[in-house]
Amino acid sequence: MPIDSNLAKDIKARADIVDVISHYLNSVQKKGRRYVAMCPFHDDHDPSLQIDKEKQIFRCYVCDSGGDVFSFVQKYEKCSFIEAIKKVAEIIGYDDPRLHERVKVRQVDESLVPIYNCLTELQKFYAYGLTTEEGKIARDYLDKRHLSVEQREKFGLGYAFKDGKIVIQALQQKGFSLKNIEGTGIALVQTSGMNDNNSGRLIFPIKDHNGQVVGFSARRLVDDDSAKYVNSPDTKAFTKSNILYNYHLAKQTAKHDGYVYVVEGFMDVFALDSIGITSCVALMSTKLTTKHVEMLRALGVEIRLCLDGDNPGQAAMMKIMTQLDEANIPYRLVSVPLEVRDPDEILKQDGEDKLKAYVNTLVDPFNFALNYYKNISPLGTVEDRKKVINHFLPTIQALNSQLEKDDYIYKLSEATGFSAQAIRNALKEYALKHRESNEPTYNVNVEIDENPILDKVDKEYRRLDLAEYGFLRLMFLDKAAVDFYKENIRYFANEEYRAIANFIIERSDVGDLVTHSDIINDIQVSELSESSSLVAIVTKLGLINNDKYSKALMDDYYKVICAERGRIHTRSSLRKALEGKSPQEQARLVANYFDQLNKRSGK
Q1: Least CB-packed of 62, 225, 287, 318 within 10 Å?
Q2: Phi-psi category of residue 513: left, alpha or beta, with phi > 0 → left and psi -120 to 50 → alpha
Q3: Average confidence (pLDDT) over 134-146
Q4: pTM reported for the whole predicted model
């Protein structure tokens, strides 16, 4: 369903870009006829973000971020365009029925609806159980683990009565069949009746990426021979390998935070939540599945691995590193030498400040792996050590600083036992082989491009781009330029300029006054894949100072465009003529080309 262009236009007409940006930044201040602020999209030390209140656009002259009020919110919140529209409406206190029309309807298997409903009621009943006199044993446990009442409600914690038939009866009274109840995974239909497998335990509801309860994990509260945790089996509603605990909440904040922590268990999620880190998910085991990788990639943020500091946890992180590398997902790892406790234990024993310091001690994959091989799993055979060297050679080769390369080589030498010189020799061999494998195959076209004379001509072709850019600028300033474009130029060679010109024509044809802000809006509403680059171009055009229409300038741009189109046609013909010719014949054709070129230019 397309975004309602009029809705975006109505909201933008009521929104002031200065006020909306000020909602996010406290550094906005007036400077001349514009406003400036510290840019939030790069490490800014001097105000480089310029805001034009009259044109309702902004641009950073350092990182080149720019656009309108929706562009700013979309980039700051790391959200979709429709979400940005809704956020701006919320900021300015504007409501409209159309804002609620694009809510996605989740496709659900009809056979699962009664099971989902049953799971939801079940979670409510467990939450009620936590408030009862019998549930005090669970509340006492949570008090010892320093989980606040707010956290208990946020994560929907509960308690299952010792009498496992009570919850079954309660669900039946709600109209759920025994088959529905069995579908939740908490009990099986037996001749003796159904009995809750979670009875007498603390309940952790497990929710899918949409926030729907799909299963439960139940912890024992007394020391006996029973399993410490009882987890829901895989059902039609619950597949363990498809779930990351707390993903439904973490995804709401991860894009703004720019990261998401991956920890081992529920308690670690609660621990990080206690120190204000809400972008955190837990594995249902130490294994990261293909589905998990897809879910993490969808967040588009840095992954911060924070599994237990013991040997199994560190080994699991080494395995996950490979999976994230293969998926090309950026990540770092929490690593504190000799710290084997998990986040929950650190919080409980040392307090919030210690946990904050721990989770913010992040290292890159290279340093984590070296530490692992040195301190946790020393390399045994020569073959193992060689594999590690070969694995890291591309990483070292990609470094620009020789000092950094030397540092990596030294660390790699320590971890593997090979001398630094041996590693340098291996790096030279790798670099030579890499260079040879990437040696370009010189065909006719490549040789032409390396011809210094033709290279000069290629530079002259940039005049076409500059002329088209200049003409596009005039199309924003006067309808005469728009009409001239339609009648004479008809199209720009530059695809982005051509797309923007089409937006201008479309708005001009219906009699609207063409503004940079409205064209940006039209581009965003269109949901084109290249919309961000088009918005950047329009923003730059909108912030040109002392911009005025001139017919004489328009005529000059037109002459250049016509002349350069002729050059491109001739150059294209030359390339085709050179295909399959001998070097001598190529030289003759190129010489003839320049003779003709000089005659046309009067030389």
Answers
A1: 225
A2: beta
A3: 95
A4: 0.57
